Amino acid sequence: MKIIYWSQTGNTEKMASLIKEGIESEGKKAELVQVSEVSLEDVKNEEILILGCPSSGAEELEEIDMEPFVQSLEGNINGKKVALFGSWGWGNGEWMLEWESRMKSYGAELISEGLTVQEYPEGEDEEKCIDFGKRIAK
């Protein structure tokens, strides 16, 4: 499994590491990959897509690397299982709701609601990330 993410401050990267920990605690393998290092071809054979991006700007996906990658998924993930996660510092989480809706419109099957954490995952939020990974692995 590949956990594909974009992180500027390290918050979403930490979430990705914790999700990986949860997946691996269930006996599955996971690989952390920055979105700038992956292509559509790299994920076509993945059974599950795990995508992470913080809320940027006016509650939207990061526009240089993540947005173009997500756009490339249209028409290529019909029936594929997808899990979404990301951190945020302001707003109300609208970016995640829109991202979920978009993935569904691409034909993806969401494994669960997107996981969001305000700022850096600590304490209870760390456990939420690990549990999210465990759910993905099952």
From TrEMBL:
Cofactors, names only: FMN
Residue ranges annotated for the Flavodoxin-like domain, each copy included: 1-137
Annotated signal peptide: none
Domain of life of the organism encoding this protein: Bacteria
Function recorded in the entry: Low-potential electron donor to a number of redox enzymes.
Family statement drawn from the similarity comment of this UniProt entry: Belongs to the flavodoxin family.
Name of this protein: Flavodoxin
